[in-house]
From TrEMBL:
Keywords: Methyltransferase, RNA-binding, S-adenosyl-L-methionine, Transferase. Transmembrane segments: none annotated. Coiled coil: none annotated. InterPro entries: MeTrfase_RsmB-F_NOP2_cat, MeTrfase_RsmB-F_NOP2_dom, NusB-like_sf, NusB_RsmB_TIM44, RCMT, SAM-dependent_MTases_sf. Belongs to the class I-like SAM-binding methyltransferase superfamily. RsmB/NOP family. GO terms for molecular function: RNA binding; RNA methyltransferase activity. Residues 201-518 form the SAM-dependent MTase RsmB/NOP-type domain. This is NusB/RsmB/TIM44. Residues 1-20 are annotated as: Disordered.
Amino acid sequence: MSPAPAGGTRARQRARPPASRADPARLLAWEVLRAVDERGAYANLLLPALLAGRQLSARDRGFATELTYGTLRALGVLDGLLATVANRPVDEVDPPVRDALRLGAYQLLRTRVPARAAVDSTVDLVRRTSGERPVRFANAVLRRLAARLEATGGDLAVLLAAPGYDDDPVGHLATVTAHPRWVVETFAAALGGDLARTRAALAADDERPSTHLVARPGLIDRDGLLRAARDAGLAAEPGPWSPYAVRLAGGDPGRLPAVLAGQAGVQDEGSQLVVAALSRVATVGTDTGVSVDLCAGPGGKTALLAGLLPRTRLVAVEPRATRALLVAAAVARPAPAPDPADAVSGPAAAVGDAAGSPGAGAEGMAGGPVAGRSNVVVVRADGRAAPLRPGSADRVLADVPCTGLGALRRRPEARWRRTPAQVAPLSHLQRQLLAAAVDLVRPGGVVGYVTCSPHPAETVEVVTDVVTRLAARGVGVSVLDAREYLPGVPDLGDGPFVQLWPHRHGTDAMFLALLRRS
Ligand SMILES: C[S@@+](CC[C@H](N)C(=O)[O-])C[C@H]1O[C@@H](n2cnc3c(N)ncnc32)[C@H](O)[C@@H]1O
């Protein structure tokens, strides 16, 4: 029988480990890491749920959050570092022990926790979660790592033997910024090969994003939301670009009455900008009074667009039942009230129903309308076959499913989960959805094509390809200069498209193309 490795699989079969001093913040972070690793959980959903169920001090909550997100973002670097001191490939270490070591390595590398405390607390965590057997191994690994970090001043390029920047800039950046190589290549391609900007974009993925709120037009204005946030003790500032945005330095926006009442919501400022831009484009010719949100779930953009186009009947299309219900929840909210404080009990906005509106019929809608408060009707359907007549909409928003490479700072584990193989199928679906959007819009109407990814295969290439193919079929589409619809927002790229970036705008890396059907 071969000896079980320290931290090997047998450790899990041991009797229940003795209680130890593992502190609650580290334990909670470890639990999230395990769930992400074992069952593909989403940290940004699981962590708040676990935090809500525990009695932790504000300091411990902050620490648990930093440990969880920071460790998940830096996973590639942490595993690389651990491999240099573990004398074995990291993926051969028992997963529960490996996750504890990752947390310890993160504390050594990126926090001000003293090295000794980082090592000792990780050893306690290992003891508590895996028993005594792997404790010596964990202790030795982290002590070696602490010594190496001290000896090199934490220089990752040295520690991880990164390729020299001059020899292999992409490899170098991938190593020192903890991104897979293909993501570095993607960002570089989207930034025209500018490697200094690529480095800045990659670095921005590691910064803790502020929380952005949207003041939903007609329900609350931005100043009212700002006041409400400050009154609730939150550090709030107006967003620099969107007239509806408030940025929070921290704190829980979920307890704000305006958010609970649906007058405001959590929404990245970049998402607000692309919706605002679409609403600002004047249509040419006679409006039908119908607009479409073709990929609506979970409904953040639907809610904003409905507020910006109050006289439009907005058909929100979403194929997944759970997400369609989220759209319904996002729009089934109180109506405008003169004083935000009264809005919770204010009158409901006009009930929307696609039936009878030009081009939109309730009959044939897969699943039927599932919500209709205000000017929105939610329809469960595939956007490629939405139950709407061609040419029936004034505006169509196609916020297509994408790799989400533009929101890596908000989804810490995503950079390691996404693969280049996912791009082509998405790109195919995106082409189909954009073509469907153009089909739905009337001549003189406008399509907004949006991704939360800067990948050229999901952005410029999709738009260029679809416009070319449609032209070959005699469908005229002109590409508008989307930058003109975001006045005051600097550095939007060379046009005619808009590409936002975390490092330039503090937003997710949203892409926007505006197309007018002729
Ligand atoms: C990027 S998300 C949209 C986010 C949304 N606009 C918001 O701001 O809350 C893309 C959505 O498209 C939906 N989707 C996936 N396949 C689709 C299809 N064939 N037709 C329409 N929507 C689809 C997904 O379920 C997902 O909810």
